[in-house]
Design brief:
single chain, about 200 residues, alpha/beta, 3-stranded parallel sheet, 3-stranded antiparallel sheet, 7 helices, 8 strands, about 15% strand
Length: about 200
């Protein structure tokens, strides 16, 4: 069925709350939560009413990944490989070693950032290789937002990628918005509020 009606008074506040709650786990600069693929493809599955994804990291082999990632992230590739091999034979004592560092501009820092991932954190947040199956498992209304000026991900690739795997996703690319700016953009808040208060398909 379709949900319609007037905008409820709590919608703007809820939109802001969702930004604060969801942006941390779902955009690549921050840690602190699970990726959407861990929810959709997890066992047991977590019941949700919908998903809001802000420039989500899908997979390093996905068409959304961009070569320019190296501008802000410094992965320790050899260390990642070696730790992966050690973990493959059950040696996990070195999983606290740093495997990726982020070059977040000083201008956008507030002291709460996570500027490095350990191997343990990286593997706990890394999407599965079969990311298409996890996208296909999206069984609730989904809003995907990205910025046209995103230098970390290929924002134009989100729409065809999600369209290929699910009928539940609506993708919007916000003109002139960058990766770091997405969380603070008024356009982001407006798009979320419009999505929350507009007609939403619920099968």
């Amino acid at each position: 069925m379709w949900r319609t009606g007037r905008t409820p008074p709590w919608a703007p506040a809820l939109a802001g709350a969702l930004l604060l709650l969801l942006a941390t786990p779902l955009w690549s600069q921050q840690d602190g939560g699970m990726d959407f693929d861990q929810v959709t493809g997890g066992d047991p599955q977590v019941p949700v009413d919908g998903y809001i994804l802000l420039a989500p990291y899908i997979h390093h082999s996905a068409p959304t990944s961009a070569e320019s990632n190296s501008d802000w992230a410094d992965p320790k590739v050899l260390r990642l490989i070696l730790l992966g091999l050690l973990n493959g034979v059950g040696i996990t004592g070195l999983n606290d070693l740093t495997v990726i560092e982020f070059k977040m501009p000083e201008a956008v820092r507030d002291g709460t950032e996570t500027l490095a991932y350990s191997y343990r954190m990286q593997t706990s947040m890394h999407p599965r290789d079969d990311y298409g199956t996890d996208i296909a498992a999206l069984n609730a209304p989904t809003l995907v937002l990205a910025g046209s000026a995103d230098s970390s991900f290929n924002s134009d690739a989100y729409a065809p990628l999600f369209r290929e795997h699910t009928d539940h996703a609506e993708v919007k690319v916000l003109e002139g918005v960058g990766h770091l700016g997405l969380i603070k953009s008024a356009d982001t808040r407006g798009a979320i509020q419009q999505w929350l208060t507009g007609p939403v398909r619920r099968d």
